[in-house]
Amino acid sequence: MADKKKDTATKKVSKKDATPKATLPPSGFKVAVREILRSKSALTALIIIILILLFTFGGSLFLNRAQITEMNIVDAYYGWGQGGHLLGTDDGGRDILKLLIMGGRNSIMIGISVTVITEIVGLVVGLVSGYYGGVVDVIIMRIVDFIQILPQMPIIIVLTTVIPNYNAVTLVFLIAMFGWTTTARYYRSFILSQRDRDYVLASKTSGSSNLQIMFREVLPNITSMIIIDVVLTIAGNIGIETSLSFLGYGLPTTTPSLGTLIGFADDPVNVINRPWLWLPATILLLVISLSINYVGRALQRAGDARQREN
Questions:
Q1: Which segments of 19-88 does DSSP mark as H helices, in order?
Q2: Which has the closest alpha carbon to 277: 94, 152, 107, 74?
């Protein structure tokens, strides 16, 4: 009898051990990391982005900014590897490699700075517009529509020529002045789908204020969308700054930029005979844009369960 009881107890224990334990779903960050690691292209792109950041931001720590823009006509138009200059020199004898490091850093910094401003403003406006809806939503969206139909590039070009003491900070605010509208529309669409969810109604019933519901309840539920938009917006803002600098209305001429380096390509002689002036900056910009795009696509899959790889 004792042996039978022991066998019965052993079976009960084994049944308990065999019962699967409940596990919590992975967090949004873990899902994003897993999706990037699964995709070879996204992982490669992420590594390239890290290397570019080390090249630009790390390399700039060892450079003297005053010497980078100092002109030396004697060394003008050195080619690849000539005169101790790995990537040659420009028309003022300035080292292209050093200009590339500082220019890449400046362009990326402006892209990140503009993104921070547009994301904060656009997120707050989108939250308010989508959460309250009704008349508030109509008024805000009509303001957004008006700003979006304005010709962005011509207005920025005009303002850069009339604003006194124009600098990089001014350029950041000029680009952000128009960029927040797209971000606001993007977040508004997600907030509209969240405002009538059960957790929002439950928070209202419990007496939570609208600000608490928006920033404590709704905002965490769109975190993955925020990460995706931030990554992709950085690439777009880098492109805007580069375009303006290429046209001569971006950063001041004394401040290196990818756009100013690519601007050497407006001369047919440079395009054919002096590719070292514009080609490195063009390749760097292309690699940055493509890498950010691949990482952004992986984050989109992480944010949408239907697109995730099995």
A1: 28-38, 40-53, 59-60, 65-68
A2: 94
